[in-house]
Design a protein that fits this description.
5 strands; five-stranded parallel sheet; about 160 residues; 6 helices; Rossmann fold
Length: about 160
């Protein structure tokens, strides 16, 4: 279900956040609201739910309830199907591989950074300590992915 929906945002491309931590997700949403981010935000708690969302399975069978995200913001360390597995599957799928995936994690493991880029992610960002630093990181992320560049529309991606 959308987290930040409004009637004004229905025509804007959504953001899918894959994050298992309620605290981290709430903080991200609060920062986005403070920054007046108008795009709909959807959440998947883990990798399996993210794949259900993207493949319209289970509770996401209705594409209207799970619109194609403009960008996926993903934590790597998720319970069950982790972020690395989701990245590999999405980037090998002809219908999904054009969706940008941005990793947002607290871990700066050079092996993870390298493998994630090899699997096809578009960016690897570290969650900084402290709300002011996180706000700046999220503001930069939103500006770049939703204002500064042109993303393919749902129609162009098919």
């Amino acid at each position: 279900m959308p987290t930040l929906p409004s009637t004004l945002s229905l025509h804007l491309p959504p953001l899918l956040i894959v994050e298992d931590s309620d605290e981290d997700f709430s903080t991200l949403v609060r920062i986005m609201q403070e920054l007046q981010f108008q795009h709909p935000v959807y959440r998947a708690y883990d990798g399996e739910e993210a794949l259900d969302y993207l493949y319209h399975r289970g509770p996401y069978a209705d594409p209207q309830m799970a619109p194609r995200p403009a960008v996926i913001l993903m934590d790597l360390n998720l319970p069950g199907t982790d972020g690395r597995e989701v990245i590999m599957q999405v980037k090998q799928d002809q219908n999904l591989k054009s969706i940008p995936i941005v990793v947002l994690t607290t871990f700066n493991n050079p092996r993870d950074v390298s493998s994630c880029y090899q699997f096809g992610i578009n960016s690897y960002m570290l969650k900084p300590m402290g709300i002011p630093a996180l706000r700046q990181t999220i503001q930069s992320f939103l500006h770049y992915w939703f204002e500064a560049i042109v993303l393919p529309t749902d129609q162009q991606a098919k």
